[in-house]
From TrEMBL:
It holds the Pfam family Ras. SMART domains: RAB (SM00175), RAN (SM00176), RAS (SM00173), RHO (SM00174). InterPro entries: EF_Hand_1_Ca_BS, P-loop_NTPase, Small_GTP-bd, Small_GTPase. It comes from Anaeramoeba flamelloides. This is Ras-related protein rab-5c. Keywords: Nucleotide-binding. Transmembrane segments: none annotated. It comes from the Eukaryota.
Amino acid sequence: MSSIKKKIVFLGGSSVGKSSILLRFTNNQFQEGQEPNVGASFLTKELSIENLKYKLQIWDTAGQERYSSMAPMYYRSASGAIIVYDITDSESFITAKKWVKELQQMGPIDVKMAIVGNKVDLSNDRQVSIEEVKEYAESSGALFFETSAKTGKNVYELFRQLLTHLPKT
Ligand code: GTP
């Protein structure tokens, strides 16, 4: 059986946990003090969901503002976009909304977006409410998850659901 190839891109502000979600998903690991990305990194991951074999190409972009002009190179031709913010940092949700808008205006026409509030293990320090993002995600046609790269909560589920929303070709 040949595999379904999909390109997925991670977007979002700095230090929200993009690389950490990816490391949890690909290696089931977590690192305190994960280093900031420079530019972007790329990896592939194969997995099966509901008897379908997927081969993912995943681009992890750098969240620091000075790299944001490079993002179009990475989201161009992406099937899925994972836009991450940190639930303990309201500023990072504002940044996430900017990425949603940019994708809507400049991204591939049929890109499926997932908005992801990471670091839910730190919910005592929560600054962004679930209700606010849920409503925003619905109005933007995006999926919504809260994850923790640290505990692994919802990380696999995020990929599983995003993939089931993509065309099976
Ligand atoms: P850039 O490379 O700058 O874009 O950052 P990033 O979004 O890739 O964030 P990164 O994965 O480097 O994580 C930033 C910091 O947050 C690191 O110290 C991580 O250990 C920490 N971190 C990431 N995810 C979680 C999480 O779910 N919970 C907690 N408590 N810390 C996390």
